[in-house]
Amino acid sequence: MRVDQQLIADMIPHGSRVLDVGSGDGHLIDYLFNHKGCEAQGIEIDMRSVTQSVAHGLPVIQGDADHDLADYPAHTFDYVVLQRTLQAVEKPREVLKQLLRIGRYAVVSFPNFGHWRLRWQLLHTGRMPMTPVWNTPWYITPNIHPCTIYDFMALCEAENYKVEKWLAVKEDGCSLPWHRSIRLANLFGEQALFLLRKA
Amino acid sequence: MSREKEVTRLSHQIYTHEEGLELQCGQMLAPLDIAYQTYGTLSPDRDNAILICHALTGDQYVADPHPITNKPGWWARMVGPGLPIDTNRFFVICSNVLGGCMGSTGSLSICRETGQPWDNDFPAITMHDITAAQAKLIDHFNIKRLFAVIGGSMGGMQVLSWAANYPERVFAAMPIATAPYQSAQNIAFNEVSRQAIFADPEWHGGKYRVHNTLPARGLGVARMMAHITYLSEEALTRKFGRRMRQNSVPAKENDLPLLFDGMFEVESYLRHQGSSFVKRFDANSYLTISRAMDYFDLAADHNADLAEIFRWSSTRFCVISFSSDWLFSTMQSRQLVRALNRAGANVSFVEIETDRGHDAFLLEEPDFDRTMRGFLRGAAAHAGLKETYHAG
After folding, report:
1. N or C: which end of chain A has fewer CB within 10 A?
2. Are B265 and B243 in contact (CB under 8 A)?
């Protein structure tokens, strides 16, 4: 399991009902079931990953965040996780709304477009930045809605979501020490991890 | 040897439920015979049973050779020791459906009131009746809760009926290549099959056995037509293309115009499918069961939205579709998955990539096997089943 997935798992209490949106290879739900006694399910867009997950005995359906969350009744889950996906969905605001409709809490991670290296590349070269995290050229990138940590916080405030916890995370998934300064996190955090609930 | 003699020669394993079964149409069917096969060992806690539901023209011989055709069981590659449905671990039950012609009460059975075979007077049955009959067999085994109910095509309709009618008796459900209702297109295909049977001069209004004949041509055509719907254009092209068969019988020997000298391979294949089918299947039984399929509409049966039916279900579902299946398309499976999501049920859903059409669920598809094995293993972990059960 990736280090940042461990950080997500640490936010989820034992025995919770969890939906992992964009569950990928299913490592997180596998971990949550085996180590935390959670009832965890997944949604994944890539059919190969879905087949692999179900073949490992994990409850996963093929689907995507934009279209399939609307089916679930309200308050079906305690936690809904959206890993590194928010920037790639059609309607991020609508997806967030769905997460907090069907779950009591939402755990959202996304790559931070405010990172200094991206700012520097754009300033210095005048072209779209390319980094290990943002590694696809603009014309084929699935990441159609990039945002910074500031942007995300502003959206949460506008939508009236309470940020219970937030972390800036390095590319390898280790958490960074800027727990107080959003400004520094926004400059040095390659990724961000948020725990939200409705205010 | 005629089919009838062959069938009476067979000795199926049968459970007779003397009290019988009251059908949805109101008629009482007593006694009720359910022919079945079992594989593996029932655990002392009776918690490791899997019910496999067969498709329209299947039967209970899921894993051992068919007594008429001597071909391997229809899912012999799926069910057995060490196979995805592992009989070292699970106790597998497969029964011939009510209305079938391999030993369960159906058109070939004797009606107690008249002392005559039912033939075409066999009452109309539904998926609900078929599963109710299976439930009598499960009661007979004194099994309170089935670990899993699995089936493809019409078998999948039975799986859904089980999950809807007996939610507390189904721990895991695998509806495969199926739909929550029979589509207009499928009813249309069934109707063509039935009309082919009715048009056969040997049909005699369904009393062909009294006339000592068989509507073999009609049933054969029904099977040929149905068989096309089980494949896909891609699979047909890959298997046969436009190739002609060498050394085919000259047209005049078959009483056909010269135009039909020579035969495409696909034609020859379909004829073979048709003629081998009539050796093992009864036309009246085909009509009864295909009609039960047409009646199937889970939501309408329960007079409710699909999601409402499964609202309180704790069953773990695994829905599987095949990308080139146009008879029971992925879209229909997805409809089911969405309803299960609306019900807040525990669902897995996989579409297997294949060009072999509806038939794929009976064929070698590695991803399908992996999914089957993995889902059952995962569900078994949740149900707390032991790794193996051996007799003695």
Report:
1. C
2. yes
